[in-house]
Amino acid sequence: MRILILGGGSIGRQIAEALKGEFEITIVEKDELRAKSLEESGFNVVQGDFSYTAILLKANIDKANVVVITTRNLETVKKTVYVIRTNNKDVPIVALLPDDMPKETLEDIILEEFEKEARIDYGIYPQKAITDAFLKTLFQLGEKKNAFMLMKKLNEIKGESDSLLILTHNNPDPDAISSAVALSVIAQSVGLKTTIAYGGEITHHENQAFVNLLGIHLRRVSTGSYEIKKHSAIAIVDTQPNGNLTVLEPEDLARVQIIIDHHQVFRHLRELLPENAFVDIREDVKASASILTEYIKALNVPISETLATALFYGIYTDTKKFSQLSQVDLRAIEFLAGKVNHELLDRIEHPDISTETAEILARAILNRKVYKNVIVSNVGFIRNRDALAESADFLLRLEGISTVLVFGIVDDYIEMSARTRDVRVNIGAVMKEAFGEIGSGGGHATMGGARISLGLFKLAKDKNSLLRLAEEAITEKFLEALKIKEQS
């Protein structure tokens, strides 16, 4: 590509140096001494005033593929653009422009002054470019600050112990699992031995495929177990101690040294933690995996194809297939994109559905009750909690439905999963309002969940009575939080 640089001053010279060897460069420079210096540096130079036709013809303006105007003199820019367009109407022009003058305004001025349409293809605004460079640097410093603070905390832990327990929420999804694995890799880089654990079950068929195909080792633990007690330092990812994490006892919280999450901050969180705990909770970020990716990038920690694939899929699922992204999520995707095994991704996303999941989905469809544009469905006694989310996702696709709640009884708890596509509804806030005081509830704007201990419901004489009582109470509270009258 032939690039014609008009002006061999500091800007023009730096551009030419950067492009040297990549493109065919010609510099037009008026100053004789500067032109000679450029020639001595190996550049093809035409000495003269580039706002004149003869000089541009000498520089082969008719054969140029791109013209770069580096002068800041507005009068010279106007005349030069006019002369360029007179001799080459199609060549792209890149010009330095005042920050308060859009290129369209300058084109209008040229038309009025020279009675000729003269297109400027790209305007470069120095003040904006400087501001953007500062912002980019500050964002990078922000990313590194969090990563370096995490590394400092990991080194502190290493000074007192050789191990770190990493906990996810009870029923970990790809975002939680990949975040835990990423933190494990970072912790291992300072010499810590890590254990990744969870307290519930992994029953969602996609999540099972995710763990199995990527060869991720997780350990299931229970409240009060030796596996929890033996670690002097605990890290928590994608949840908080007073969120969907029930395996920790109050005395365990003194050993929580790290929390990384993207959900809303739960009340009294700081009161539960040691004063010097590392806490990075960003409610504007859509996936914890994005935060962990940021750490890995900032710390230059080597990332395997398996981990890149895990993090990429974790972001994919928690951002609803990349439909809801913050700048942190976008930068993480950009960093991971070229490192992902796409064949594995496809196998994870399309696993075989289990018979149990299919049965629960069928129950959700058959038992659905419609209240205006809202569905509430009771799937009864189940073992596979993750099937609730799959059922809610499916019911939300029904015509005319904007909000869904699916619930079932798992062991001694009523488990719930909610979804919405109504922009007026924050379903996480709805679940918290409806069930927060009698259990736990929360989530994001479009997806949420809740859990309630059976408690008094256990007094029901039989299972059918139990289900009926639970359904009446849950439906009433959910619709009340949505401000919908209970009328199917």
Automatic annotation (TrEMBL):
Record GO terms (molecular function): nucleic acid binding
Transmembrane segments: none
Pfam family, one: TrkA_N
Domain RCK N-terminal stretches: 1-114
Domain of life the protein comes from: Archaea
Cited SUPFAM superfamilies: DHH phosphoesterases, NAD(P)-binding Rossmann-fold domains
Cross-referenced PANTHER family: BIFUNCTIONAL OLIGORIBONUCLEASE AND PAP PHOSPHATASE NRNA
Protein name as annotated: Phosphoesterase
Species, as recorded: Thermococcus guaymasensis DSM 11113
